[in-house]
């Protein structure tokens, strides 16, 4: 493959303080944390179970929000890994590389000076994508240019792709995600055959990296060929003007604490709280032919003195977690806002573009908005929480996709459900967030109510046992 899809970078614990919002600290817990955690886990499982029922998407969104609130304690160690992710050990050379199955999610770890290898067995028809999210601890010092690098190579060691993600100018420890791929391309001669391929994972600057091991979350996805041959050139023109940020009354929607726990949102204005060192995840359904635009706003601090470089960071990732765009803004204690660049509509031929941003907008599905507040904000402005407002706008009319010859893995990763489309109105129309979620959920309310009644009985029993 002649090009690679990496990540574009635009971004170049102090003592205890009162909350930045001026609100009093919460009262101490009156029951064991373990009991609360078990109860929250039960709620999450309950709501996630109803996701397969009519209207289940809205309930699943509530589950993701609940899980995100639980995992959002601040710091990179608060990342929520996918439930059921299999443990896999990276090998020091290709001979011992463990197999990664298409559509699966794995957990691993990366030492400072390691280069780890994993194995893929690929056909000659499908594009294959691998993402690696590296999660450093919150205590180690990181540099702007350190991060994680991912390479996909064939059995002879020839490079199919190379991508990296770095921490950026804020020097704030956070989960960083890089992606690699093996593409079937017209006229290409390298990495086109069926057979064994390898994924190599390493730190970008190990000599400047913290000494502790980093946890890894790895995902794989396959995309079959389209049924009919289409254009092999990217779309020529599109509306590149940045839209006005969406107005309207904000709706509360707590962000999730990982890709697997991302909170589902559609077009609208969403509000949450965020603490220094915390990373929040949201997912937005984006159909073929549609454009997504987002901005994030950070509220002011009572102590408006000082400056943090690249404090507020907003990133957009595609359905296989490949980064599309990112932007960051410094913070002086006054309200600050950051917005993504205007991006073209999602289209299959985007993959033939020379721009890495455009190339990443190659399929429909859930796109992820990732918001990070630098840990260094606490040095000058306290531990927060700080008010966060996320504005999401979708433009354009949904179009038919390419139609695949087979089933992508994981199943449904490049398509939208009817519930997803209900949360993403056409032509930039504004829809009240909670009203949309209620409309989607109404079909599942009966069954959900029955299950919640059972949960209420369980909660009472658990409280009596804890007493």
Lay out the secondary structure.
Layout: H1 33-49, H2 56-71, E1 86-87, E2 98-99, E3 105-110, E4 115-122, E5 127-135, E6 147-154, E7 159-166, E8 176-182, E9 195-203, E10 214-223, E11 251-252, E12 263-264, E13 268-274, E14 279-286, E15 291-298, E16 308-317, E17 323-331, E18 336-339, H3 356-360, E19 365-373, H4 377-381, E20 386-395, H5 418-422, H6 433-441, H7 445-466
Parallel strand pairs: 1-3, 2-4, 11-13, 12-14
Antiparallel strand pairs: 3-10, 4-9, 5-8, 5-10, 6-7, 6-9, 13-20, 14-19, 15-18, 15-20, 16-17, 16-19
Helix pairs in contact: 1-2, 1-7, 2-6
Please provide a written account of the structure:
This protein has 467 residues and is of the alpha+beta class. It has helices at 33-49, 56-71, 356-360, 377-381, 418-422, 433-441, 445-466; strands at 86-87, 98-99, 105-110, 115-122, 127-135, 147-154, 159-166, 176-182, 195-203, 214-223, 251-252, 263-264, 268-274, 279-286, 291-298, 308-317, 323-331, 336-339, 365-373, 386-395. A hairpin with a 4-residue loop joins strand 6 and strand 7 (159-166). The longest helix has 22 residues, at 445-466. Residues 1-75 and 427-454 have low confidence and may be disordered.
């Amino acid at each position: 493959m002649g090009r690679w899809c990496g990540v574009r970078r635009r971004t170049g614990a102090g003592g205890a303080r009162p909350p930045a919002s001026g609100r009093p600290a919460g009262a101490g817990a009156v029951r064991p944390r373990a009991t609360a955690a078990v109860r929250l886990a039960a709620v999450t499982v309950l709501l996630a179970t109803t996701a397969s029922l009519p209207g289940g998407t809205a309930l699943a969104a509530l589950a993701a929000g609940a899980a995100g609130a639980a995992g959002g304690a601040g710091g990179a160690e608060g990342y929520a890994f996918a439930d059921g992710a299999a443990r896999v050990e990276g090998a020091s050379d290709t001979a011992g590389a463990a197999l990664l199955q298409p559509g699966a999610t794995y957990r691993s770890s990366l030492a400072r000076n390691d280069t780890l290898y994993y194995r893929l067995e690929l056909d000659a028809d499908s594009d294959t994508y691998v993402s690696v999210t590296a999660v450093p601890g919150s205590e180690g010092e990181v540099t702007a240019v350190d991060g994680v690098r991912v390479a996909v190579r064939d059995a002879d060691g020839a490079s199919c792709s190379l991508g990296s993600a770095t921490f950026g100018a804020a020097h704030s420890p956070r989960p960083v995600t890089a992606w690699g791929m093996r593409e079937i391309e017209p006229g290409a001669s390298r990495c086109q055959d069926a057979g064994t391929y390898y994924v190599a994972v390493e730190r970008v600057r190990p000599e400047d990296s913290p000494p502790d091991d980093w946890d890894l979350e790895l995902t794989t996805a396959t995309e079959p060929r389209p049924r009919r041959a289409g254009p092999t050139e990217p779309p020529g023109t599109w509306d590149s003007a940045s839209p006005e940020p969406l107005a309207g009354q904000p709706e509360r929607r707590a962000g999730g604490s990982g890709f697997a726990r991302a909170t589902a949102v559609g077009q609208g204005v969403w509000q949450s709280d965020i603490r220094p060192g915390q990373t929040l995840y949201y997912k937005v359904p984006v159909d073929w032919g549609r454009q997504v635009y987002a901005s994030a706003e950070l509220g002011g601090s009572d102590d408006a003195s000082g400056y943090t470089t690249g404090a507020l960071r907003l990133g957009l990732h595609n359905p296989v977690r490949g980064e599309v765009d990112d932007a960051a803004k410094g913070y002086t204690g006054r309200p600050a806002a950051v917005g993504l660049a205007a991006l073209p509509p999602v289209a299959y031929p985007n993959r033939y573009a020379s721009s890495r941003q455009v190339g990443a907008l190659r399929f429909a599905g859930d796109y992820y908005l990732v918001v990070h507040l630098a840990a260094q904000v606490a040095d000058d402005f306290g531990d927060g929480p700080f008010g966060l407002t996320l504005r999401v706008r979708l433009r354009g009319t949904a179009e038919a996709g390419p139609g695949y010859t087979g089933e992508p893995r994981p199943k449904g990763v490049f398509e939208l459900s009817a519930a997803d489309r209900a949360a993403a109105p056409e032509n930039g129309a504004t829809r009240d967030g909670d009203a949309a979620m209620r409309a989607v959920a109404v079909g599942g309310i009966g069954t959900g109510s029955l299950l919640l009644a059972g949960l209420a009985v369980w909660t009472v029993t658990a409280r009596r046992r804890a007493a």
